[in-house]
Amino acid sequence: MCRIYDVSVDGYQSWRRRGKSQKEQQDEYLLGIIVKIFNDSDQTYGSPKVHKELRKMDIYVGEKRVARIMRKCGLRAKKARVYRTKPSAINRFFTSVPFHLLDKIVTGPNQVWRGDITYLKLNGRWKYLATILDQFSRRIVAWGLSDKRDANLTLRTLGRAVRNRGLHPGLIFHSDRGVEYAAYAFQSRLTHYGFVQSMNRPKTMNDNAEMESFYHQFKGEKVCKKEYRCEQTLRKEVIEYMYFYNNRRSHSSIGYITPVEYEALHA
Fold it and tell me: What is the largest CA-CA distance in the chain?
C-alpha cells in the first residue's frame, strides 16, 4: 500500500504515531458544540446562524469553517415547501384598500402589524392558521386556528392581538387582499380600534413578504410534511413553535437575536 500511494514505510508509521492534528482535534471539539446548537434549534439553523451562536459563546471561528464541519457531518437545516393557494377570483372585488407601507419607516413595536392565513392538514382536511406579526421585532403577537377561513377567524385573532399588546391608534394593519381581511366586519373593527388598514398592491407578490417568510420557516422547521390526526396534537405543535420563534429562534433581520430580546433592547 505504501508503494501504491508513493509514501515510505517510515513516513506512514510516523503519521500513525502522531495521531490527529491540532486542527482535527479542534474540529472535533467544535463539532460537539455545533451539534448541540443545531439540535437546540430543532435542526433549523444553517451555518450562518450557528456561527452567530458560537460568537455569542465567545468562540471565534470562521463561518466557512463552521459550514465545512456541518457539511462534512451532514448537518443540514431542514426546510419544506409552503402550501400556496391558487389566486381566488374574489380578490378582484377588493381593490379599494390602499397600500400604506411604501414609505413607512418602522422605529418601534406596535406601529405595523402584518396578518396572513395558511393551511395545515388535519386528518385529511384543512385547518386554517391566522397569524399576526409585529413588523419591527418580527414577534408573533397573536394567532388563531379554525375549521373555516373566514372573517370570524381574522376577527378573533385581531382581538387576541389587541388584548396581548393593547390599543395603538394609528397602527397600520397590513394583509393580502383576501376576503377575510376585506370583509366589512373586519374593516369596521379596525376603524373602531383606530387602526389604518393596508393591503397588498394588485399583482405584487412581495408586499407581505414578512408573513410569507414566517410561514415558510414554520412549515419548514416544524410542520414539514406532517399530516396530523388529532387537533390537540396540532395545537400543541403550533404553541411550541410560537414560543420557540418568539423566545429562542434568532433572526438575521434583527441582528441574530430573538424578537423578545429585540423588543427588550428597544423598550
Answer: 86
Tell me the backbone φ, ψ of residue 144, rounded to 5 degrees.
-150, 150
CATH for 89-265, options being 3.90.25.10, 3.40.50.10420, 3.30.420.10, 3.30.1130.10:
3.30.420.10
Query: Cell 393591503, residue?
Result: 199
Q: Answer whether 2's CB lies under 8 Å from 8's CB.
A: yes
Band (pLDDT 50/70/90 cuts) for residue 90 is very low
Q: Give the whole-angstrom CA distance, residue 255 versus residue 252.
A: 5
List the chain domain ranges. 9-72, 89-265
Round to whole Å and give the CA distance between 48 and 62. 10
Average pLDDT, the chain: 85
What are the tens digits of pLDDT across the range 220-251?
Answer: 887 766 777 888 989 999 999 999 999 999 99
Band (133; pLDDT cuts 50, 70, 90): very high
CB contact at 8 A, 264 and 139: no
